[in-house]
């Protein structure tokens, strides 16, 4: 049986399209298996391959164009643990995010949030004539001179409303949405966390588009290879 969407697959193209459709709707693997009649292990392999493709698409994306760029960090992870802002992650992942104001987001898992770790990442995603809007962590004071760009330091002030340049609503919206979405899995292993994080990024960046058509077009151009 030939399948133009998945190389060497033993399921039909119709079943593949159905899996893509349900995955695009963010339906869980167990339900996809029941709806399509494809075994759970096979569905899991296909979903993992789709997430790995999303990682590639996200990481190969173009740099941010000129304009306002916001960046911030959050601790995300499989367990509901209250994490102090002192960088005591208590088993969670530190995730650094960059977003163009009103545009796309890019995320990266980091180890300690030091300037030496963050600077190369930010430099690879922002161009020289961008206006950088970081959060209020003291550690980011060292980025004020980043590429001689304009720089607005954004203080964290609890739930107080933002004013003027003191806003970081774009990246905050992504963090809130990502946390809600990741919580539905009721636990994500450390080995697959990055895949789920980049899936969140991909979905967020294409939130106003038809995800099914995007994935269908991608697989027509470059079929999946199941490991």
Provide key terms for this protein.
15% strand, five-stranded mixed β-sheet, 7 strands, 227 residues, alpha/beta, 2 domains, single chain, Nucleotidyltransferase, domain 5, two-stranded parallel ribbon
CATH uppermost class of the largest domain: Alpha Beta
The value of Rg in angstroms is 19 Å
Provide mean pLDDT, rounded: 76
| Helix-strand string | EHHHEEEHEEHHHE
Number of strands: 7
Give the helix/strand class. Answer: alpha/beta
CATH superfamily caption of the largest domain: Ribonuclease H-like superfamily/Ribonuclease H
Q: How many structural units, i.e. domains?
A: 2
Shape: elongated
Low-confidence parts, pLDDT < 50 over ≥5 residues? Answer: 80-88, 141-168
Question: What is the CATH third-level topology name of the largest domain?
Answer: Nucleotidyltransferase, domain 5
Strand content: 5-15%
Query: Helical amount among residues, as a percent range?
Result: 25-40%
| Name of the CATH architecture of the largest domain | 2-Layer Sandwich
Describe the structure.
This protein is of the alpha/beta class. It has two domains: 6-60 and 209-225; 68-183, Ribonuclease H-like superfamily/Ribonuclease H (Nucleotidyltransferase, domain 5). Helices cover 40% and strands 15% of the residues. It has seven helices and seven strands. The strands form two sheets. The protein has a five-stranded mixed β-sheet with strand order 4-3-2-5-6, with helices on both faces. Strand 3 and strand 4 form a beta hairpin. Helix 1 packs across helix 7. The longest helix has 20 residues, at 40-59. The radius of gyration is 19 Å and the shape is elongated. The two termini are 18 Å apart. The relative contact order is 0.18. Residues 80-88 and 141-168 have low confidence and may be disordered.
């Amino acid at each position: 049986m030939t399948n133009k969407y998945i190389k060497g697959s033993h399921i039909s193209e119709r079943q593949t399209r159905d899996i893509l459709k349900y995955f695009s709707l963010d339906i869980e693997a167990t339900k996809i298996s029941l709806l399509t009649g494809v075994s759970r292990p096979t569905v899991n392999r296909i979903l993992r391959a789709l997430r790995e493709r999303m990682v590639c698409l996200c990481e190969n994306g173009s740099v941010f164009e000129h304009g306002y760029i916001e960046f911030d960090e959050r601790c995300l992870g499989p367990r509901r643990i209250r994490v102090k802002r002192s960088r005591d992650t208590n088993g969670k992942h530190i995730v650094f995010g960059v977003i163009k104001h009103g545009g796309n987001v890019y995320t990266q898992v980091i180890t300690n949030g030091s300037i030496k770790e963050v600077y190369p990442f930010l430099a690879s995603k922002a161009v020289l004539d961008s206006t950088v809007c970081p959060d209020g962590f003291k550690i980011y004071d060292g980025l004020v001179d980043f590429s001689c760009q304009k720089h607005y330091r954004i203080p964290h002030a609890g739930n107080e409303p933002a004013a003027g340049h003191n806003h970081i609503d774009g990246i905050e919206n992504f963090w809130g949405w990502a946390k809600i979405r990741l919580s539905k899995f009721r636990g994500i292993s450390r080995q697959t966390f990055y895949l789920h994080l980049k899936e969140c990024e991909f979905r967020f960046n294409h939130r106003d588009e038809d995800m099914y058509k995007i994935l269908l077009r991608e697989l027509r151009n470059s079929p999946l290879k199941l490991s």
